[in-house]
Model the fold of this input.
Amino acid sequence: MHDMSAHAVPHGAPTSFIRKHVFSLDHKVIGKQYYALALLAALIGMALSWIMRIHLGWGSFAIPGLHLLSSTGAPGNVLTPEYYLQLMTMHGTIMVFFVLTTAPFAAFGNFFLPIQTGAEDMPFPHFNMMSFWVTFVGFWVLIASFFVADGPTLGGWTQYAPLSAIGSVGGPGQGLGVVLWATSIAIFCVGQLFGSLNFITTTLDMRCKGMSLMRLPLTAWGWFITSVMGLTAFAVLMPACILLILDHVAGTSFFVASNLVINDQVLPHSGGSTLLWQHLFWFFGHPEVYIAIVPGMGIVSHVLITNMRKPMLSHRVLIYSMAALAVLSYMVYGHHMFVSGMNPISSLVFSFPTLVITIPSTIVVLMWLGSLYGSKLRINSASLFALGFVSMFISGGVSGFFLAQPSIDIMLHATYFVVGHFHLVMGVAAMFGIFAGTYFWFPKMTGRMMNETLGKAHFILSFIGAYCIFMPFHYLGIAGNVRRYQAFTDDYLIPLIPVHKFITVAALVTGFAQLIFVYNLIHSRFKGAIASDNPWQGTSLEWSTATPPPHNNFGDKMPVVYHDPYQYSVEGASADFIMQTSPEKINSPNEEK
Amino acid sequence: MATTVHEPPKHDLERLPSQGSGNGGWRNLVPADGDLPRVKDHAPPPASTGIWVGLAAITMTFAAFTSALVVRQGAAPDWQHITLPSILYFNTLLIIASSVTLEISRRRVAAFMGGIKDRAANPARWLYITLALGVLFVAGQTFAWVQLKSQGFGLATNVSYSFFYVLTVAHALHLLGGLGGLVRVIAKLHNSVLRRSTLDATSRYWHFMGVLWVYLLFLLWMKL
Amino acid sequence: MSKTKNFAVVLSAVVLVCCGALILGQKVNAAGEGKITGTVKLDGTAPHMKGIDMGKDPFCSKAHATDPGKMETYVVGSGGGLENVVLYITEGLTGPAASQTATTEPVFDQKNCMYTPHVLALDVDQKFKVTTSDQTTHNIHPLPNPMTGNIPWNQSQPPGAAPVEKSWKAPEVIPVQCNIHPWMHGWFVVVKGPYATSDSNGAYTINNVPPGSYTVTAWHEAAGTQTQKVTVAAGGSGSANFTFKAK
Amino acid sequence: MAKIFAVVIILIAIASAVPIVMHWWPMPQDISVHGTLIDEQYADTMLEAGISFLASQFLLAFFIWKFSAPKPGERVKNFPGGAAGLVAAAFLLVGTEVLALGVFGTKAWASVYLTPPAANAMPVQVQAGQFAFYFRYPGPDGKFGPLHADQISEANANFFGLDTTHDQDSKDDIVAAELAIPVNREIHLLMHSKDVGHSFYVPELRIQQDFVPGLDVTVHFTATKIGKYEIVCTQLCGLGHYNMKAYLEVKSQEDYDAWIKQQAALQ
Done:
């Protein structure tokens, strides 16, 4: 194990290929590895959503070659009901855990947090390396469930007990499939705990000279707050998964109640608590939503500031708002359980903090809008995606008003309204944050620029496409369209099928737009224009170092920080931006008074 | 025993050895005008921050187990009272004793690093004793599991036993991590590359395991 | 040298003759196979079969618009003949008749949201097909006891999907149900050796029974099992009639 | 590009709002007594959320249009009122808004969950199982017989596990696959799950409640319009989840009496 010290250079530059690119201790390589994993996971997740959308629009359409994935799940290339649910569960799990958690947090955070704090590396590089490789193993354990006898689990990414805990009598994939799922998630939790440990310690202990906490850029704050949330949330999900696995393999009764009858057989379990799983899961699950979105808020603020050529109206207010979101996220998890048989008084108790959480969210949005006023906005792929994030966050946020109220939740719970809400606010918004970060930092990460024309085309198609997919979801929900149905056979749902067809077409088009991004990413990696050290005229530490950064981030000389992070358009300054490392004296800096 | 202790040079020599190294402030004491000479660099070694972060995560995990136990107990009337194997109380004495021996060892190393050489006699011996007590504790826990199992009380016999096994095994697994840390500290001490922050972090972890065990014992005694 | 050669020739000849005799013996045996026939009746009035409410699936309720579906636990024909009784030999089977696997491939169809037939008798390792004639998705979920060596499965069949081809490894009475249409219940009765299922009049014929004396067992899903001793002469037939009491 | 983007935002915002503003897309009709409160709450929320949505999207589009092409030499400006003004606005506007919604919403919630059912409410038990609902009426004696999990047999249509030979109370219990209820009569629905989690959702009735295995939950409601409605399951319960449904038939008292008589004969 590595020596837990950081004052000396953490580790020398590796020479062998394996230590350089595979089992690397370098946070930058680990960040790129996380990014690659998230990209792979996102492509798989997107392909799954295509299959589901085609099935929902045209239920009898045979998708060529689908039987190769599972001959029993898709006989004649048409999805069976169970396989639809199995793909849906995998889509949700892959997207939430292996894309939305890894990309904005683990990938970008790993690459840029140490650089932005002025550190040579994370304090525990071996833990950092393990964090990635553990997550990697977790991913393949999950993917492996596609290839076991009954296929993956069909219980949904929330895996409500007792369906998830009774074993294969519950349906295809509920035996080994669930065990693999829970194992994968428990492994994933371990990986993220290692990661959070490093992130928190980096932020607290590894800052360079002059880098006070308030001098950290908003991205670093986003990652720091997220890692605190991750530390507490994943530490709760892991024991929940362990108990779930024990219910399967050891015959315990944590989640399975007495006298349950399936196929006319009384199950051998007794006394377990159905709601226990929901409490444990949502105690993790709601902070998880913010784990996905808070790094995006940081990235978007950072990108916007650089492209607006002015700082946010208030640096501190944004930080406090993000922290308030994090704290409140633990007090509101019960709003997922309004109609789940919980004490109706608790529903009201959970409802108020849920409504209160709109206040910090509104403040964040108002800070973005207010800062946009009077700016010198540059339009490029990165800033477009950041502005798109703001739009999506608003749209996804206002539907939260409805779901926060138990009385309206009676109508909208478990309908497409909820699906639309969380896809906009957590899925699309977080994805836009990832895209903004990618277009913004790609030059620093690879040394080459991305193609702007393709980037803008990618943006406008994704923006319109995402609204065409997810806005109609809300209407479907208002009409009472239940989620997690593989076909709509109910009399009142049949008239809604044309809407589903429209959504399917929109989803296919939007999906293809993402292939433009993949092409742009790969093409620019090898053929893009060479990037300068500071292509966007940014001020934070990642722009003070070489492109791409050397092994220990800053070469021979460690940076010294003289200013708050966002000194743009400072009156009387020599340029429209002053880097944090510039010793230039400023008469009236953009700082908190 | 020819062990020497080596500590890299420190910036703030005025710190007392008994305080350990976790008492540093943050690096954010920066005047807004960028007046660097007034900046005090008090960042603690990452190991001492890291260990608190790690302990926070472990605390959350056991808090989740505890709340699961409370909720599950209230969910159904099938909760059984079980008599804890009496060896657990003996094990408790072992783990408390191991904390004491580790603390003695830590103080000796600290004293040595602080320059008070005559009190530094054989810190490694106390580390070995701690290690032995830790191994004995795990052996004792294993004995308790085997004993219960031989009486016919398995993991799935009743939910009380399920929680008993889950909590004690989870604690033992975490304790094994602590034993690994102790082995590492001993190895470093022999190679004269031990940092005080490493020893401090390991001993905090170890003490925490002791506190956690006492808490778990109390919880099991009260609830089961 | 030549002696060895001669020996080899003689040995081959002996082997050939023996094999020929064996094969011929089989044929002779087959020619002498008999059968067991009889009828199965239900004593007393047939129990009332509850109707099935198929309202939740528009296809099913439409298919049964004129003829409401009802439970098929007791299907009694004219004269009290009991349908869906499986008759098979439990004692006395020896040699190839016991180990041979039937080569026909019976079909278990899902038609108008019911199983046709309601009871499908099968030989061990005999292949069978599950097909669907309905314009609604069905799910086929047989529930064998895993301890027997039969592997449970659970898969759905959308309209127009290819038949599912399966077989069972061990003798067992296996209930099968559709998870999507909870009223759909049927049975796979897996037995060793020749078998028959009683028709709507309660009549049955077990073919390919070598001469000998046997115990014939009649199995009904609700009425239970009965056994009788039967003797079959070479090329002739034995007879066994069963009478069940409704439970 | 900036101007195209601004126009796109405006168009999307308007297109999203039109079906709601023009009442082209209402909620399903309401047939319950308590539904009025929920619908009012929904309308209020829609108004406030809609205004917030349109205002912020328009503002975003306007700022993008206006500030994306700065003239050379132009200086950046600060928002009048600054951060403090905006924070105060957020607290005042959004704070009072959500507080009001929360307080008024409590009334609607209380009408469903915090009031006990009337003494003369008609009890009906609903059992959810993979993948069907079954309903049990207590019969003339007004008592439900006990359930025996080990006697449940779908093959023999004993869905609840009733022991009609031994349990006196079970003998006259009526089991049906649809929920028929008299109009304008309060129903006390006793919810029981046979296996996993399910949910009881009738959009027209403004009722959604999960079945919790091992815990019997109840809801009560009064239907006010005669008709046939669908009961669907909204809690993922397995492969047949999409097809787990039953009908709610709200009948006049006479029709209901006839129906229950007919069902009793079928048992």
